[in-house]
Design goal:
- The protein has 16 helices and 20 strands.
- The chain has 490 residues and is an alpha+beta fold.
- A hairpin with a 2-residue loop joins strand 12 and strand 13.
- Helix 12 packs parallel to helix 13.
- The longest helix is centred in the middle third of the chain and has 24 residues.
- The protein is elongated.
- 36% of the residues are buried.
Length: 490
């Protein structure tokens, strides 16, 4: 008989004793944390309390010592024959590590100084049919295999609670702080469609689904951008959304097909105003989450306090690659220069996307040459189809990206609000798509129509929540900050 069959037999034994091993309700009146906090008072008055939690240690002797844990902590329990009676004491044999039980009793301190509950009654709340992760050195549960941890996060949280839970607590705090900051600046949080008739707002392949009643294909959004800017047209001057986005792209240490992004847009602002907003917001988030603006990520210490560094994209690439892309005005000449410097340019990509590859080579990953935090700004216009051109410099867009310790944290523009220019940019994207760039953006007639109604000068920013959490919690892999990341089929 394997272990699961043994546990199934024990569940049936509970039923045979007239006890449902999966009851609908519990009589718990105190959490473990409350019991420990009020321990002296409870002990002085011999007060009876009822706790509930998962059995995480079990040591059977003449009497039984065990530990139960709920979401607030764990506590030792003591069960002997005199306290619970002969029939109940025999049912200890029906307990296994991982079972969720209810215990009633009074607290006392053992001779070794351990705070303990003397059990007068116990019952089953949920019989565990599968074992907990194996114990490692020191007798503690540990789960080391990353594949199992990511596929079965519930086991990861049970076995590696002290390491894993703080990451997701920090993520929740960061989201709360992000909302607090934006709300304090007068931004309105909204929701826009996840299912879209036409995807846009970023360069990526979409996931496609089909609506049966309408008999039409729809797309999971790759970004909320174009809908949020429609709201700017509609007169909501400061707007944001914390959005689940879906991009049909590869998996690596900083990409997951399903991810969380915050996008915000501010009317009567430009990308300089948004730079100030971003550095102030990220510093606020760090203080609220960590208590400091100083963050250590993968051995690199950075300070998120304003002001952040500012460097043009051209300066950064020329300094670290030796290639001044302004000296190569067409795609082929830039590709030849890249080859001469040891790069392998993708023949499908236009000049702007090749410049983007050069940028990635110096700012992303553990060997990034730009530590930051820094804003790289002034991007090629053909790489930024939704950004306003820099006044007097027709081939440069008012766009920036924040980077810190090898992580790209977002993307921002002075938003393009000229409907004729926007149409021309979309048409250029269509030509790039025809040449093989399947991530080029599509022409969105409804969005152009909204721009023709009139959108004021606007600054916008999209920041990755997952990557921000990676930075704040020193996690090298995005899977460590997403509770249930996308995984390859086993």
């Amino acid at each position: 008989m394997d272990e699961r069959e043994e546990r199934l037999a024990k569940a049936e034994a509970w039923r045979a004793a007239g006890i449902d091993p999966y009851p609908a309700r519990t009589a718990r009146d105190t959490s473990v944390a409350e019991a420990l906090a009020q321990f002296d008072t409870l002990a002085a008055h011999s007060a009876s309390i009822t706790l509930a939690g998962r059995l995480v240690r079990l040591r059977e002797m003449k009497a039984t010592f065990a530990n139960i844990a709920d979401g607030t902590g764990d506590i030792q329990i003591y069960i002997n024959r005199e306290s619970v009676g002969e029939d109940a004491f025999k049912r200890i044999k029906l307990l296994d590590l991982g079972d969720i039980i209810q215990v009633t009793g009074t607290v006392f301190t053992t001779r070794t100084g351990e705070k303990t509950l003397r059990v007068s009654d116990f019952t089953m709340l949920a019989k565990a049919l599968r074992p907990l992760p194996a114990k490692g050195a020191g007798g503690e549960m540990k789960l080391f295999d990353p594949e199992t941890r990511h596929r079965k996060r519930y086991l990861d949280l049970l076995a590696n609670r002290e390491e894993r839970l703080p990451v997701f607590v920090a993520r929740a705090k960061a989201l709360t702080a992000m909302r607090e900051y934006l709300n304090s600046q007068g931004f309105l949080e909204v929701e826009t469609p996840v299912l879209q008739p036409l995807y846009g707002g970023a360069t990526s392949r979409p996931f496609v689904t089909h609506h049966n009643t309408l008999d039409r294909d729809l797309y999971l959004r790759i970004a909320p951008e174009l809908y949020l800017k429609r709201l700017i047209v509609g007169g909501i001057d400061r707007v944001y959304e914390i959005a689940r986005n879906f991009r049909n792209e590869g998996l690596d240490h900083s990409h997951n097909p399903e991810f969380t992004m915050m996008e915000c847009y501010q009317a009567y602002a430009d990308f300089n105003d948004i730079m100030r907003l971003v550095e102030e917001m990220y510093a606020y988030i760090a203080r609220q989450t960590l208590g400091s603006t100083v963050v250590t990520y993968q051995g690199r210490q950075i300070d998120l306090a304003p002001p952040w560094g500012r460097l043009t994209l051209r300066e950064a690439i020329a300094e670290h690659t030796g290639i001044d892309y302004e000296q190569y005005p067409d795609r082929d000449s830039l590709a030849r220069a890249m080859e001469q410097h040891g790069y392998r340019p993708d023949p499908r990509l236009a000049r702007g996307r090749l410049i983007d590859d050069l940028k990635d080579s110096i700012v992303k990953g553990p060997q990034s040459k730009v530590v930051g935090p820094v804003f790289l700004y002034d991007y090629p216009r053909d790489l930024s189809p939704l950004a306003k051109a820099k006044p007097g410099v027709a081939d440069t867009a008012e766009r920036f990206q924040p980077f810190a310790a090898g992580l790209e944290l977002g993307n921002a523009f002075s938003e393009l609000n000229d409907p004729l220019d926007q149409r021309a940019r979309f048409e250029d994207q269509a030509r790039q798509r025809a040449r093989g760039d399947d991530e080029a953006q599509q022409l969105d007639e409804d969005y152009i129509e909204a721009l023709e109604v009139g959108m004021p000068p606007t600054g916008g920013f999209g920041g990755g929540v997952d990557r921000l959490t990676m930075l704040l919690t020193d996690q090298e892999n995005i899977r460590e900050v997403i509770l249930f990341p996308t995984m390859r089929e086993q």
